[in-house]
Amino acid sequence: MSGPERRADAPGAGWALECSPHDTGGHSTGGHDVVQRGGGASTRAGNGATIASPGNGARPGNGARPGGARSGGTTCSGPVPSGGGDLEWDRAVELIRASDDICLACHVAPDGDALGSMLALAQALRAMGKRCRASFGEPFAVPAILRFLPGQELLVEPGRIPAAPGLMISLDAAGQERLGSLAGPAGRAGALIVVDHHASNTAFGGVRLVDPAAAATAVLVEELIRRLGVPLTRDIAQGLYAGLASDTGSFKYPCTTPEVHDLAGRLLAAGVRPDAVSRELWDRAPFGYLQVLAGALARARLERDAAGGRGLVWTTITRADRDSKDVPYDQLEGVIDQLRRTDEAEVAVVCKETDQDRWYMSVRSKGRIDLSEVCAALNGGGHREMAGFVWTGPVHEALDRLRVLLDRAA
Ligand SMILES: [Mn+2]
Hints:
By secondary structure, the chain is α/β, with parallel strands linked by helices. The chain is about 30% helix and about 15% strand.
């Protein structure tokens, strides 16, 4: 069988990983990546973040989409209503204060924002004296580039998360299914707090700290930690900085606002060394990686007429390509950043064969084509300029599907 991968719980199903380190825990279930803001209060948070809260439609612990229960509900992404107070933040803080045992989950195949945000929050909860267990769905393996993050002693295998936690907090996951095997416990939790910044977020969870304008989930986690009254230690700041640096493409993407730099400044003041974090995230690799990269660049194809004449550049990396140089899959994240430099192409694609005989398709645009829509049509998702999807079957079929969609979107 070939076609877009549908199983969110499949081993290695987090295409987000390879879209990283600038990615996207996003997964869209359709072509309508709009955030439902209607029927609920919007909160102007202390750091300027706007929180879309679900209003009456939400109940703690409700894993289901409130759907039509919202009065006056709209699915617009227009101006956010002002006012409404800090209700949603207050509810989150109250729930956390009232719980002694809290479970955290982030999306499968975590990137720097997912894992960094989760470990930062886990350490803050521990500092409050809470019992805290953090995890993510299988495959339960921390990517090599994230092994420097502090707080990993708080990670437990997903099987050790209770079937029905009293309080669960979901981080950087655009939909409940992005939690993989932890989607079940999230749905059965007594209360579920969702912290996320994907425009495609699917209105799950009872308390929703969801802000598509936030550059990273880490921005929202910092706000939460501040409201909990926990001081920023160096170790907590390290996770938040990894999230912020990852999702802003090292402070290069358009989401890099003055507020992002303000937060980065506070994190540096807490003791983060940006050179050390950058080296871990982006500036190191085994020698074999250079050879795999060289091969990928040598195989790259430029199709000037593709993407409605805006140009497409693509390459492939098979499992054999990297096995021959002893390079693991999770070392390949930087390849797309070389390919996407191509002046003649609006869209860049790296097709990477996983260890599970699937293809992860990392897709980037320069902003003229909305890739979140294109990749959602292939059961993936992401953001406008960076997205991805998983494919089973011959990779040329994935490229064919993509070419058609890109032409249509151009
Ligand atoms: Mn993120």
